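4.2 Preliminary Data

To establish feasibility before requesting continued support, the project team ran the inverse folding procedure on a target of 409 residues. The structure was first converted into the token representation described in Section 3, and no sequence information of any kind was made available to the design step. The complete token record follows.
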């Protein structure tokens, strides 16, 4: 079916003088017209809105200059920004693939697009946010706390790649790499001088910065091994001693927050005794010996948060961001090309950063704003650096509270 292009509004652009010599002796050469199919949002709803622009091309009889009343490209875009924003929102936020998005446009607004056109709209919108994408990256690697995680993705022709995510407390940056090799991070994180929060993937160990290993991953691994080996007494001892230590620390976090002057004084000796105890023991169990080596190799990195203000002991921010891509991957895994995947990651960076700041994603897309400052302004934040103070980490504190009763009870 074809889209009805009957205009809702008509814009007429005319010229009465030559823009080069200001002469009024101008003659019309030809008339031009083009229509833009868009959506218009009202307080009570949204509807299809078509704007037709009429313009003319002129010739100046005095200076022989040819000009137009409308400054436009030879082939102006046929679809408006609001329509592209709605498609991106429906696809990336609501979880509908582009085929369903295309069908929804036809069913709801009687806007009928070719299959190729819907992909083209997404590419146009992606191009407009590439500067914001780069700005988010530059701001993220200069924050004092950085979370990192990665997940596998299958491309066409049987290729395998990895989607990586860097998050701070208020920004998210996605990017693609063809392998899980971490050597590129050394150069990429050159501006970073804070604490890196990650899982226990050994590739992160080579990075030259303070690191906090995710204790939730450690507890999860021990729980899974205990379920598979319920009669391993030595592993039960490790789990019991670690649980007792972490419960004491979490009680202090609940009372004082993530402040080193409270956590360090009270718990650093306790942690040191625990690590020394684990390292000095001779275990018979292979599993217990595996955790002994784990504590021996990276035990200090598990408790870096005791020496810093506002550093979390979990990697929840990065894992939360990875889940967004994981949901999107369910529909397209194995059908991505490298180009279409990178286009999505640009939009995902913008959308997830909006959600981290409690900004309405659709409203931000419709605003046509393309700077990080404007995003923070929509979040009504006078100074985004305030979120780095330990007593102003609402997202982190909420996550800590939710984990207390579930993990260490």
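Position-by-position output of the design step:
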């Amino acid at each position: 079916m074809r889209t009805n292009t009957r205009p809702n509004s008509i814009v007429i652009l005319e010229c009465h003088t030559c823009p080069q010599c200001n002469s009024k002796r101008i003659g019309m050469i030809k008339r031009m017209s083009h229509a833009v199919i868009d959506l218009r949002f009202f307080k009570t709803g949204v509807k299809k809105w078509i704007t037709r622009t009429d313009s003319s091309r002129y010739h100046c009889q005095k200076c022989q200059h040819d000009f137009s009343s409308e400054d436009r490209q030879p082939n102006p875009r046929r679809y408006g920004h609001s329509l592209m924003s709605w498609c991106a929102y429906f696809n990336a936020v609501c979880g509908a693939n582009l085929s369903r998005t295309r069908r929804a446009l036809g069913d709801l607004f009687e806007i009928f697009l070719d299959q190729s056109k819907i992909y083209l709209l997404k590419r146009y919108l992606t191009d407009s946010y590439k500067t914001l994408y780069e700005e988010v990256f530059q701001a993220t690697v200069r924050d004092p706390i950085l979370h990192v995680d990665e997940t596998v993705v299958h491309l066409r022709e049987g290729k395998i790649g990895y989607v990586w995510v860097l998050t701070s407390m208020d920004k998210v940056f996605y990017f693609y790499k063809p392998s899980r090799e971490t050597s590129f991070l050394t150069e990429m994180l050159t501006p970073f001088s804070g604490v890196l929060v990650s899982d226990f993937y050994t590739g992160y160990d080579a990075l030259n910065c303070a690191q906090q290993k995710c204790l939730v991953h450690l507890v999860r691994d021990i729980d899974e091994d205990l379920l598979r080996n319920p009669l391993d007494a030595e592993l039960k001892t490790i789990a019991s001693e670690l649980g007792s230590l972490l419960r004491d620390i979490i009680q202090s976090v609940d009372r004082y927050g993530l402040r080193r002057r409270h956590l360090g004084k009270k718990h650093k000796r306790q942690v040191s005794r625990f690590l020394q105890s684990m390292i000095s023991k001779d275990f018979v169990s292979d599993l217990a010996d595996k955790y002994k080596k784990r504590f021996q190799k990276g035990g200090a990195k598990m408790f870096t948060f005791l020496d810093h203000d506002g550093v979390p002991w979990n990697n929840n921010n990065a894992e939360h961001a990875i889940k967004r891509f994981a949901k999107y991957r369910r529909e397209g895994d194995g059908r991505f090309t490298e180009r279409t995947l990178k286009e999505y990651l640009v939009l995902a960076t913008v959308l997830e950063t909006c959600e981290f700041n409690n900004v309405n994603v659709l409203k931000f897309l419709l605003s046509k704003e393309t700077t990080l400052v404007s995003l923070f302004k929509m979040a009504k934040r006078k100074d985004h650096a305030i979120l780095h103070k330990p007593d102003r980490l609402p997202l982190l504190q909420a996550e800590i509270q939710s984990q207390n009763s579930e993990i260490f009870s």
